[in-house]
Write a structure and sequence with these properties.
5-stranded antiparallel beta sheet, 15 helices, elongated
Length: 485
């Protein structure tokens, strides 16, 4: 609790942060009453403090008896677009000044007034950098959670759109919001999510991804169990389907739950394209997914154990290309895979000003030099290039890393057991995905459990006037309006 002695209050707050260099205290007198206000220069705006307090507190109040209440009422009635509240303990005082508030103390009063004077520390709304926009809105979320709420509100003007706030982290006290449409989202899933967030006990939450392991992922898995997006249109489409959005302050990414594997093969652009084009593109993603994972493993299996499955002419061609190569097939593939992953990591981490020169030139030089030196056969370069290009059909880093890991598993299975190992690994792959759940939702839905109508809607983008129901795994309110009045 705060003390009635103003000097003791100020000294206690200063000592809490060991007189940090960005803490500023101003002292003045009104009607012989000591008044002090304290703020952090790093999070507060000097202009707002000057306009809201410097000029306001210089006014003469009629009575010094109730000067605290007079100041509070005056500030509350005269300062637009700012939050003002009364607080009475030291922890809340420091939390508010760290959040950009200025706290005003009056001598002989064991309370203080907190006035919002936040500095603008956020970047402006810009185009998404991680999710390229071909069609549709080009705005994206930023680190200001109020801006992010506004980007959703301006698209969904419904009284049933709710935002619930939580404070997570003993030290960061990060603001976490869950958003959903009350009459669409499954209330049981909302309650489960709220209970999990309330049960978090951690020092701090810096990014929305922290919540993935703490709240969403019930069992360890290589494949991601959440969709993370910085596109407001993607969030709004998902909310209208019955999903729940999780937002964390100071991060531009929003988590969408529950997410199933089929969601990673969709794109917001599908809703803006013709049904045939969107369906064709979606099928291409499924084909690219399979090719990216199993192609190197199948090649290793065939060339090591199961050459009889190849036509004679093709087998002769492969044998000619491998002539003079000193390494077995699996070593060839591992060398190329390792080279590709190193180039991809270098391309991801290098400064943007360098462009794509490292990845393009590196791939051309290494591939051509390896073939010319007789270290790698040309067909291996083709196989790895096909697998790598197929993986580029996805932009989510988590799904890309998952593909990379499972590709290695299939390669090892093909190396030790041939095509039989590939089949066994594929069964393990399906079994592992089938065992996953996200907020009590099967990860492989609608494939397991199998639902014919939902499966068709996941594979093909049907015309809007043909879709009359929301996904059954997301909501009990499946019926939605369609077509024209």
């Amino acid at each position: 609790m705060l003390d009635k002695n103003i000097e003791k209050n100020i000294n206690t707050i200063l000592n809490m942060n060991e007189n940090s260099c960005d803490i500023t205290v101003h002292n003045l007198k009104i009607k012989k009453t000591k008044i002090s206000y304290i703020f952090l220069e790093s999070t507060s705006s000097d202009d707002k403090i000057s306009n809201f307090l410097g000029k306001t507190l210089s006014l003469e109040f009629r009575s010094s008896r109730n000067i605290f209440l007079n100041i509070f009422k005056y500030l509350k009635n005269s300062i637009p677009n700012s939050k003002i509240k009364i607080i009475n303990n030291y922890d809340d005082v420091f939390f508010h000044i760290a959040s950009g508030f200025t706290c005003l103390f009056v001598d002989k009063i064991d309370k203080c007034i907190a006035i919002e004077t936040k500095a603008n520390l956020d970047r402006s709304i810009s185009e998404s950098t991680s999710e390229p926009v071909l069609k549709g809105p080009k705005d994206s979320f930023n680190e200001n959670i109020q801006n992010n709420i506004g980007l959703i509100r301006k698209r969904i003007k419904d009284k049933n759109l709710l935002f619930k706030e939580f404070n997570v982290g003993r030290r960061t006290k990060s603001k976490v919001l869950i958003s959903y449409i009350k009459d669409i989202a499954d209330n049981e899933k909302v309650k489960i999510l709220e209970e999990k967030i309330n049960s978090i006990d951690i020092d701090g939450v810096i990014d929305a991804s922290y919540l993935r392991e703490l709240v969403i992922e019930s069992s360890p898995s290589i494949f991601p169990q959440i969709i993370s997006t910085e596109r407001p249109d993607n969030v709004c489409i998902s909310l209208l389907e019955g999903k729940i959005a999780i937002m964390v302050e100071n991060t531009p990414y929003v988590i969408l739950v529950p997410s199933v594997l089929a969601d990673f093969f969709k794109s917001p652009e599908d809703s803006y394209s013709k049904p045939f084009n969107a369906s064709f593109t979606r099928i291409l993603r499924y084909i690219a997914f399979i090719l990216s994972i199993v192609t190197p493993g199948i090649y290793i299996a065939v060339m090591t154990y199961n050459m009889e499955v190849l036509p004679n002419l093709l087998l002769i061609s492969f044998a000619i290309q491998k002539e003079g190569v000193p390494f077995p097939t699996v070593i060839e593939v591992l060398i190329m895979i390792l080279s590709y992953e190193i180039l991809r990591e270098a391309d991801t981490r290098k400064p943007q000003i360098m462009g794509a020169s490292i990845s393009i030139v590196g791939a051309l030089i290494l591939g051509d030099a390896a073939v010319s030196a007789g270290i790698i056969s040309p067909i291996v370069v083709i196989i790895i290039s096909l697998s790598a290009v197929a993986g580029m059909a996805f932009s989510d880093p988590d799904i890309i890393n998952s593909i990379r890991t499972w590709r290695l598993f299939f390669m090892l299975a093909g190396c030790f057991f041939g095509l039989t190992g590939i089949v066994i690994m594929f069964i393990v792959f399906i079994a592992k995905l089938s065992s996953l759940e996200v907020l009590s939702t099967p990860y492989l839905y609608p494939l397991a459990p199998f639902n014919v109508l939902e499966f068709i809607k996941e594979i093909f983008r049907l015309p809007a006037n043909k879709v009359s129901k929301r996904p059954s795994y997301l909501t009990k309110n499946e019926i939605k309006l369609r077509g024209m009045k």
